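Exam review. A common question shows you a sequence with its structure tokens and asks you to describe the fold in words. Practice with the pair below. Do the first one on your own.
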Amino acid sequence: VDSILKSINDPGLHALVGCITMSMGKEKIAARFKEIQSQYPQYDKTFLWLLTYSREHSPDTQRYIEANYKKFHQCLDSGFPQKLSASNRFESRMWEMIMCDTLSASGKIIPKSATGADLILETPKGQHVQIEAVAPDEAEDESLRAERPDYSKDNMFTSGGNIEDMENPILLRCTHAFDQKAKKAYSKDEPFIIAINTSKVVGTISLDDFIIRRVLLGLGCVTITLKPDGSHQTGLQQKSDLKKPNGGNFPVARFRDPNYKHVSGVIYTSQSSIGLIPGGWGWTNSGIFYVPNPMATHKVDVDFDFFKTIVCDEEAYREIPAKRDFVSGVI
């Protein structure tokens, strides 16, 4: 990550590269990293960990970030390395870099204006698609956060409850992120996609297709209905609003609401952006989904082959696997 560190221009960071090794042991690693965090509180902890912890895959990850930045720096915000490394900002900025790489397989990422969307994708047919990327933070109110395993004292964790109650905190943050981006200034004459990464708010459990169905389509768990002739019919729950963890309701089903027809679609994942680097665990877990808005004013004229697709139109609800594995254009 030489060019990124050069742009940040902090000599102390260069001295940290690879200073933590597996041979130090768990306790010394934890103590050393805690010390580094206290010395450099202005930097994101994931960014610091990536620099300092020397392990088998660290060089590959660093090389990918460096190569990605060199290829797409003209299409990213000015001062991007400083924003990438800033406290609690690494995930959201890394998500933009992953979007540059994956979307460029379906067209060309072109330089943007100072205002407007985060990224602009030019499709092979010449269409310009505006992309707004967001990785929402956890709620300030701790009672609205998803439950997370605590492995500090034991490597075993047990929990239980209704899946809807466990997913609601993620649904809230995802819906909030969607609404924030949907209200931004953008060109009314071109397609507009919101790319959401909820990895920072996921707790014990998260099913991406469930989150997508709830937030965008107002659909939930599978239902089974017994018919008079003894046969069974399957379907999906339909709800236009859900209960907040601390009381009250919040509306969902954004793609059933004509107020959001300016949003052409949503790209969604719950996977950490680091895990979506080529060959990363994020692709073998749930990967990335694309959901076109059936009510969209401007349809997108290109396929996103690396993404799973969820379509819900007059015909049926369908989950379509990715057509091919992700092949990076960066490395």
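Now try the second one, then compare your answer with the model answer below.
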Amino acid sequence: HREMPKLGFSLFGNPSSGKTHWSAMSFRQIRRNNYPFNITLNPIDSADFDGIVDDILDDKKNPGPTPPNRFVDPLVYEFTDDDGFGTTDGLLSLFDFPGELIYGDPFHDEQLKRGLQADGYLFFLDIVPGAWKCRGCKIANSSHRTRCRNCESPKDEHDGSAASVGNSEKPIGSSSLNEERATAQFVKQITDEILPKLRRKSLRTPVAICVSKIDFLMNPEFHEPGDNIERFFGQLDRIGIGTSLESIADRSRACEELTQTIWPGWGIKKQMGELFGNRVQFFPMTPVSLQAKGELDLSQVSTSPYAIIEPLLWLLHMTGHPVFSK
């Protein structure tokens, strides 16, 4: 493997945005050779992800958090493409960075500098509004979690109720704008603080913006139903389940239109485009099922992931491996 060309893609996103769940279910799909494209992918030393997949499918458990205070070993694939110019072998590493990186501290600053040296990025956005921070282990959690994803501490001990006043952490946020603000500030931090340290003025690295829980859009507990959401799912139905550069672009346009409903007032495409040289696509997806409709109890859901492999294939394409060429 030492002589093989190497690619690295970094996974960024808020806590509970779905990075690890996506990694596990896309790993499962790749392992089953469920991707009819001009490339072969084989995972290397994947015992940890075998266990995560078993937890999701057999035990109906959501994945645990990415450890916030240490570097995590990447998920590595050996890949072979076979385009018109001949066969190319290489190694692809996926680096899952903790969601706490979004909120910033000196250790995470060093992680971010390393992550930005990747060949491509997957940026996960959580459509579930709000978040709360565990008083015990300081881990950030999305608002729909009733217990800390790390230490299982109950949420109601931290929400400012009478029983916890004076002891609880201040909630990170309670509106759907919270993740938007944190992510927008994170992108600004990259521009203003990190790039100068890397002696760069901008990035020319492709970024896949992964809107990773679109089934939650159909749950009125998290989003008000409306014409824009219905039109979005109508567009996905018309585009179909096929995977090509054309269908990826069509889904991206449909998702970009929806961003003003999910995150009103945030010009995410413009902000990301200015930083990454307009090499940006939206990827609406769910590692669970479109029929799940935001169901939190995985035992009540028949797993049927939607459009989870596309961002990985697109990034490979954008880094010189034309997997859609045949």
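Model answer, second protein: The two ends are 27 Å apart (CA to CA). Strands lie at 6-13, 39-44, 75-83, 86-96, 120-125, 131-133, 140-142, 207-211, 280-284. Full marks require stating both points clearly.
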